[in-house]
UniProtKB/TrEMBL annotation:
Keywords linked to the UniProt accession: Hydrolase
InterPro entries assigned: C-N_Hydrolase, C-N_Hydrolase_sf, UPF0012_CS
Species the sequence originates in: Streptomyces echinoruber
UniProt-listed SUPFAM superfamilies: Carbon-nitrogen hydrolase (SSF56317)
Protein name stated in the entry: Hydrolase
Keyword Hydrolase appears in the UniProt entry: yes
Family of the protein in this entry: Belongs to the carbon-nitrogen hydrolase superfamily. NIT1/NIT2 family.
Domain of life, source organism: Bacteria
Amino acid sequence: MRASLLQIAVDEDESVDSRRRRVAALVREQAGADLVVLPELWTTGAFAYEDFGREAEPLEGPTYEVMAKAAADAGVWLHAGSIPERDPDGPLYNTSLVFSPSGDLAAAYRKIHRFGFDKGEAVLMSAGREPVTVRLPGTVLGVATCYDLRFPELFRGLVDAGAETFVVPAGWPERRRAHWTLLARARAVENQAFVLACGTAGTHAGVPQAGHSIVVDPWGEVLAEAGPDEQVLTVDFDPGRVGTIREQFPALKDRVLGLRPPRRPDGGAA
């Protein structure tokens, strides 16, 4: 399987419409790949909080239309990153779109773990509730977004739903780049799955981005890693390696579920 991760630079001087057209052209250039992946909130920038409401769009809005056509033109599975989605009932969501090679919407995932604690995305957007998997020829994708990477229980749930390859679009900041690489490798090793993590480049809303999109195999080996600037990272990988590693080193079979919470030192429940 060939995957191309498009590490897009979000330039505040470039309009959203111009960036959509530019990125659609980049997607079309990946004809021959099996899967193309875009970053999180590449239309606005993940830290451009003031733009979320202004640039929010319905699920089947401008980004949906442009990316569906680009996927069909290139004949690729396209994880089109995420958009600020405005639900018809009013709430905003950080929503990922996955298109089939015919341009049909295969899945939409509303980000479950919102970043920002008491500001930014955490207060401006609502949380998704449903983990999402997508079956491709040869592998099952588990879909997660950026901050989700810090929550291993989500990835365990995706494995239980059949995921063999995790796709993680992100707008990860440079100041925590070491965590980005560490967590991508950890999610790969503990779940014996491929991780395709695609970030943004450049600086937006005053926040330098980590870049360094990365592809990790189920043994934790880095197959490819981008630099800090806008780049197309293309890698060939064998999805069958997941089954081989899970059979040769069957750690997932030794999971112990339903453990009681530990007791506090004073004897009470934790």
